[in-house]
Design goal:
Layout: E1 14-16, H1 19-23, E2 28-30, H2 32-48, H3 55-65, E3 84-85, H4 93-106, H5 114-125, H6 141-150, E4 154-156, H7 158-161, E5 164-166, H8 172-175, H9 181-185, H10 188-200, E6 205-209, H11 213-216, E7 225-230, E8 237-246, E9 249-256, E10 261-264, H12 269-272, E11 279-287
Parallel strand pairs: 2-3
Antiparallel strand pairs: 1-2, 4-11, 5-6, 6-11, 7-8, 7-11, 8-9, 9-10
């Protein structure tokens, strides 16, 4: 899922150079309230699950703690140099998955303070875990999945159980630079993004088509990352969230553009997707 060019007013946002971030020359942008929200969510996860608990239940616990959080697009598209932006007060589908993943991973360790969370988030959000300008951020979600697979964070379950091949052909950002302030201000970034898009065309992935989701749901575990494969030209993925089973059926825990908040779909995922003409199926990834 791509970020679009909307800039919400920050809530007492400030630039904080945390001790560990400073050691890595990493600037972290966050509000005081983000740290408070993080501490509350982390306590919820740690207190509800013993240390040996698998990451799947921790993903669900962290994601559920965000229920009702407002959907806010493009919180990462700030002015100035690329830096780690944390906004737990408002999330879109991608930042929701990133925050939940980083919290779940850190909840199993004693290194789970806010600066530890910042380190984990950086590792997940940026290519190779290193911030090196705008183009180092993993803008396309299939690259987010493949890069984090290479880093050992996840396994692409859909590559094993998918019934259809997926070879992403992406060019949305370079075909529509007018939608991205950074690409407009620095045309050299368009060339950088074009090289990244070209590299993605070599991916060899599989996905589960919409008509097979119900049949394959028993292979999908609570807390797995679900990504909607789209037929929109130039895009790979249009939405993402977490798998959660309710009453024996697979649902989606996600930051919903439709309801404008984090929610669990009232319909099972297979039925929810029937009304989405531009979605052909799903990718499934498992953290840990």
């Amino acid at each position: 899922m791509l970020q679009t060019a909307f800039h919400p007013a920050p809530e007492k946002e400030h630039l904080t150079d945390m001790k560990r971030a400073a050691e890595k020359n990493l600037a972290v942008s966050a509000a005081n309230k983000d740290s408070l929200i993080y501490d509350e969510v982390m306590r919820t996860v740690v207190n509800s699950l013993p240390p040996p608990a698998r990451l799947g239940p921790r993903m669900v616990a962290a994601g559920s703690a965000f229920l009702g959080t407002p959907y806010v697009a493009s919180t990462l598209e700030a002015e100035g140099e690329e830096r780690l932006i944390i906004n737990l007060r408002g999330v879109d589908c991608t930042t929701f998955v990133e925050y939940v993943t980083a919290i779940a991973i850190r909840s199993r360790t004693r290194m789970n303070k806010f600066d530890d969370f910042s380190d984990e988030l950086t590792a997940l959000r940026y290519r190779g875990g290193v911030i090196d300008g705008y183009s180092s951020r993993l803008h396309y979600f299939t690259e987010w999945l493949k890069d984090n697979e290479r880093k050992g964070y996840l396994t692409l379950v859909s590559d094993k159980i998918g019934n259809e091949p997926m070879d992403p052909v992406v060019n949305f950002m370079t075909s529509n630079p007018q939608h991205y302030r950074q690409l407009q201000e620095d045309p050299s970034l368009v060339k950088d993004m074009a090289a990244i898009e070209k590299g993605m065309s070599g991916y060899n992935m599989r996905y589960i088509t919409k008509d097979r989701i119900e049949q394959m749901a028993h292979h999908i575990e609570d807390g797995d990352i679900i990504a909607f494969v789209t037929t929109i030209e130039g895009l790979d993925v249009s939405h993402t969230g977490l798998a959660i089973h309710q009453n024996g059926r697979l649902h989606l825990l996600h930051a919903s553009l439709r309801s404008k908040e984090v929610e669990i779909t009232s319909e099972p995922l297979s039925e929810y997707l029937k009304g989405l003409r531009n979605v052909s199926g799903i990718l499934v990834a498992r953290i840990g």
